[in-house]
User: Fold this.
Amino acid sequence: MLIRSANEADLDALLGCVVTAPISWAHPDRLTENLADGHYTYDWIWVAERDDRIVARAVWWGVPDGAVPIALDCVYVADGVGDPIAVASELLAAAHATFREAGADELPAYHIFLPGSWRNDPAIVEAVGWRRTAAAKVGLVDELERLRYEWTTQAGVPAQSGRLTFRDEPDDQVMLEAFVRVAEGSLDDGTRKGVAAHGVHQQARQELAIYLGMPGDRAWWRLAFDAGGELVGLAIPSANPNGPVVGYLGVLPEHRGQGYVDDLLAEITRILAADGADRIAADTDVGNAPMAVAFERAGYRQFAVRLVLSAPVP
Ligand SMILES: CC(C)(COP(=O)(O)OP(=O)(O)OC[C@H]1O[C@@H](n2cnc3c(N)ncnc32)[C@H](O)[C@@H]1OP(=O)(O)O)[C@@H](O)C(=O)NCCC(=O)NCCS
Assistant:
């Protein structure tokens, strides 16, 4: 078996790699669009060939002109290949070695988008099963399920209790301090692992940088204060390339358990709706129960799950 990165001459063959299982994959339209706008590049598409025929294909996604990809989008192995786990893991391992040489500190995580009830569908369970085993063999051993929510105008903007006052805060240093304080005791998997691996300040700096780098308007960011003028939390309405997103919100540990999450989420929804959003997307970890139930109270509907397979934080 020959394993290599793809090139332009492979395009027709790459478009012919069709995943028939009902899971997210790099289908022909997605492949063509992402190759055109730079989120895919041939260096981030790897193939395994037998007798000059592509029998496996893996596709990674990243930012245009990035040195290394950010996420694994699709693992395809042709029907009739005896051991898809062995073929897929060999393919992923070869690509990982190249990404490391190109400077990747962390392996790109594998993001699989699934319906909320995916465990009840044997075809999805099977399609996820061998991919998960192949990913684990090459180090993507941590599993996280993110619940995907959406709000639409039909749900209406949730009411405010009036307990909090919201102020914009242009100073990133002040925002950073709020990120540091809400990270404490967080139930978010990424925050917990980041804090454990490199400390709360670096984790907060990284989270702040992510939201500053997103296409949402910085002027939307708010700090929330109670009637006594004490800081209660922060609310970051934002957007990604697909449209408006909740971004981030957090309540300081000493103010948790009073339902302030509802006020922060209402404010984010209000700001984005006032800006014209007719759909707002949001994700939270399955283990972040207070956040998940707050989405439901605010009229956000869970429509899917994102399964993230990643390497442990170094
Ligand atoms: C998620 C979060 C905003 C919830 O805020 P909140 O205003 O305290 O939520 P609620 O008041 O509705 O809390 C509901 C229950 O969950 C508990 N709870 C809330 N956050 C908790 C936490 N981090 N750890 C353990 N329990 C928590 C509350 O004490 C309360 O318990 P009770 O019903 O026994 O009284 C808050 O935990 C937080 O800031 N976490 C860190 C940032 C984060 O995860 N943001 C979301 C990213 S998607």
DSSP finds nine helices and twelve strands in the chain. The pocket of coenzyme A is lined by residues 182, 185-188, 248-251, 256-261, 284, 288, 290-291, 294 (CB under 6 Å).
